[in-house]
Design brief:
By secondary structure, this protein is an all-beta fold. A hairpin with a 4-residue loop joins strand 14 and strand 15. The radius of gyration is 29 Å and the shape is globular. The protein starts with a strand and ends with a strand. The N terminus is likely disordered.
Length: 500
C-alpha cells in the first residue's frame, strides 16, 4: 500500500504543513522512474525515485528467496485527516475522557449502574395471505458503565412482547374488523383473517433477555458486541448476536425468546443516546408542525434517553417459513434512580420535556386495508406531588400527537382525534396518564382498563421511574396509547423524559 499526500504548498516551499489530500493505492506510479517507466512525480530528469510514506509494503526484490526479500513497515506516521472537537465554546484538537475540561468532567456524579426501559413496535413481514400484526416491545433495562475500559453493557430483561388483545371477549363492539378477524377465542389475535393462528403473548421473565455491548473481558470472543462509552450522555452499543427469535412451546403453552445458533437465525441492532447524534434531525421535534417550534428536549443531569433498533431474518419461529421482524427507531431511557435516603416530602416537582413515539395505524376504506408506521414526537409536561409521608402522584401530559398528514389526503392522518367516543383523522389533543407511587419506591406503573364508548375503544398504559435528587426530580417513562373503531386503528408506544 502506497499513500500520496499534499500540503497545499508549492514544491519549492520551505513551510511545513499537514497534508490536505491523501490517495491510498496498491501501486506506486513513481517507482521505476530511473528506468524510464514511471510517471515522474515531479522529479528532475528521472534521477531518483520519490520515497513515499507507507503503512506496509514490499520492496522491489530480485530474489525469490524469502530470506533476501525486503519489507517496509510503518513509515507513514502523518495523520491523513483530523477533525476538531467542540468543547462547548471552542474547537480544539482533542478532548480528554477524564480530568478537568474533559468529556466526563461536566457530568453530574451518579452511580455506574443505571436503570430504565426499552420501548418500541416489533413489525413482522409475513406472507400476503397473513396479517402483519404489530406487537409492543416492553422491557426493563440495566446499563453498566465501565469507565476504565470505556465500554457499556446494557441488558433488556423480563421482556414483554404482545399485541393489543381483544379487550371485550364476548363482544365485537369497539373492535377493528381487520385487526380482530380470524376468530380466535378469548383475548387472542390472529395472524390470519379467515382462521385462528394466534399471535402469542410473550410475558416477561428472567430468561427473556437481549444484550447490547459486552464486558471488556469478552473482547477476544467471536461474539463480542462492541460499545463506546464517552460519558453518560454520549454512548452507544451494538446488539449481541445470540440468534434469538420468538417461539411458542405448545406442550406447556409458553412463549419465549429462544436462541437458535444452529438454525441460521441472525440478530442485528444497536442503541445510541440522543446526545450522541451531532446533527439531529430536528424535523421529528417539530411538535407544533412548524420549524419555528421551540425545542422541547429537556436538560437532564441524572438520566439520558435515545433510540434503538433490532432486526432478525426470522422473528417468529412458531410460524412456518421465514418472517423477518424488526424494531425501527424504538426509544429508551435510563438513569440513576431517586434514592430512598434522599426522598422528597411535602413538595411538588413541576416537569417539562418531550416524548417520542413509534406509531402504527390501520385504515380500511371500502374493501382495502392499508397500514402505516412512523415515528412522531410531542411536547410533554407533568408533575410529581409528594405528600408528607413521601407517597406521590405522577401526572404526565402529551400534547401534540396526530398533527401531521401523510400522503393520501384526508384519509391518511397521523391522528385519531381528541374525542374518546369518535375516531376522526385529526390531532389527538392532550393525552393524560395519572399514576400513584409509594414512598421509597422510585418505579411506578399502571395498566388502564380499556374503555368502549360509542363503538370506539381506547386503552393506555405507563411504566416509569423517578431519577435525580430530592431537590431536582427527573422522570422517564414508557407510554402506550391505542384507539380503534370498526375501520380504523391507531397504536403508539414511546418514551417520555421530563425534568424540573
Amino acid at each position: 500500500m502506497v499513500v500520496f499526500f499534499g500540503d497545499n504548498e508549492e514544491s519549492n516551499s520551505s513551510s511545513l504543513a499537514a497534508p490536505s489530500t491523501a490517495i491510498i493505492t496498491t501501486s506506486d506510479p513513481c517507482s521505476g522512474i530511473a528506468s524510464g517507466v514511471g510517471m515522474g512525480c515531479g522529479q528532475t530528469s528521472g534521477e531518483k525515485n520519490m520515497e513515499l510514506g507507507v503503512m506496509y509494503s514490499m520492496e522491489a526484490n530480485n530474489s525469490k528467496n524469502i530470506n533476501n526479500q525486503t519489507y517496509k513497515t510503518e513509515t507513514f506516521y502523518q495523520g491523513i485527516a483530523k477533525q476538531k472537537q467542540y468543547d462547548g465554546s471552542n474547537y480544539v484538537d482533542a478532548i480528554n475522557l477524564n480530568g478537568s475540561n474533559s468529556w466526563r468532567s461536566d457530568i453530574s456524579t451518579s452511580a455506574d449502574t443505571w436503570t430504565g426501559r426499552f420501548s418500541g413496535h416489533i413489525l413482522t413481514d409475513v406472507e400476503k395471505s397473513r396479517k402483519s400484526i404489530p406487537m409492543y416491545f416492553r422491557a426493563p433495562l440495566t446499563a453498566n458503565f465501565d469507565r476504565n475500559n470505556d465500554r457499556v453493557k446494557v441488558i433488556a430483561d423480563n421482556i414483554l412482547i404482545h399485541a393489543d388483545p381483544d379487550w371485550i371477549h364476548d363482544s365485537n363492539i369497539g373492535d377493528n374488523a381487520w385487526y380482530h378477524s380470524g376468530g380466535c377465542s378469548n383475548e387472542n389475535i390472529s395472524w390470519l383473517a379467515g382462521s385462528c393462528l394466534p399471535v402469542y403473548k410473550m410475558t416477561g421473565n428472567a430468561n427473556t433477555t437481549l444484550q447490547f455491548g459486552d464486558d471488556d473481558s469478552q473482547k477476544d470472543s467471536s461474539t463480542f458486541a462492541n460499545s463506546a462509552y464517552i460519558n453518560k450522555k454520549v454512548f452507544g452499543a451494538i446488539l449481541k448476536n445470540e440468534s434469538k427469535n420468538i417461539d411458542h412451546f405448545y406442550d406447556v403453552d409458553y412463549t419465549n425468546l429462544r436462541s437458535r445458533s444452529v438454525s441460521g437465525i441472525d440478530n442485528a441492532g444497536a442503541m445510541v443516546t440522543w446526545d450522541t447524534i451531532d446533527e439531529k434531525d430536528k424535523d421529528t421535534l417539530m411538535s407544533c408542525g412548524s420549524p419555528s417550534c421551540p425545542d422541547p428536549e429537556p436538560s437532564l443531569e441524572y438520566m439520558t434517553w435515545g433510540i434503538w433498533g433490532l432486526a432478525t431474518n426470522d422473528g417468529i419461529e412458531y410460524i412456518n417459513g421465514e418472517q423477518p421482524s424488526a424494531v425501527h427507531l424504538g426509544t429508551w431511557y435510563a438513569g440513576d434512580l431517586l434514592d430512598v435516603s434522599d426522598w422528597p416530602v411535602n413538595r411538588t416537582a413541576s416537569l417539562a420535556g418531550m416524548a417520542m413515539f413509534s406509531m402504527w395505524k390501520s385504515e380500511t376504506i371500502g374493501s382495502v386495508t392499508k397500514n402505516y408506521s412512523w415515528t412522531e414526537s410531542s411536547r410533554a409536561d407533568g408533575s410529581v406531588a409528594f405528600d408528607g409521608l413521601g407517597n406521590y402522584d405522577v401526572n404526565i401530559n402529551v400534547h401534540d400527537l396526530g398533527r401531521h398528514t401523510c400522503q393520501g389526503g384526508a384519509n391518511c392522518s397521523s391522528g385519531s382525534g381528541n374525542d374518546a367516543s369518535n375516531f376522526v383523522q385529526s390531532a389527538m389533543g392532550t393525552i393524560n396518564w395519572q399514576i400513584n407511587g409509594t414512598a421509597g419506591q422510585p418505579n411506578f406503573a399502571k395498566e388502564y382498563q380499556a374503555i368502549v364508548n360509542n363503538g370506539v375503544t381506547t386503552w393506555k398504559a405507563v411504566r416509569g421511574s423517578l431519577h435525580g435528587k430530592s431537590s431536582h426530580i427527573e422522570l422517564g417513562a414508557e407510554l402506550l396509547y391505542s384507539k380503534q373503531d370498526l375501520n380504523n386503528y391507531l397504536q403508539g408506544i414511546g418514551t417520555v423524559v421530563l425534568s424540573e
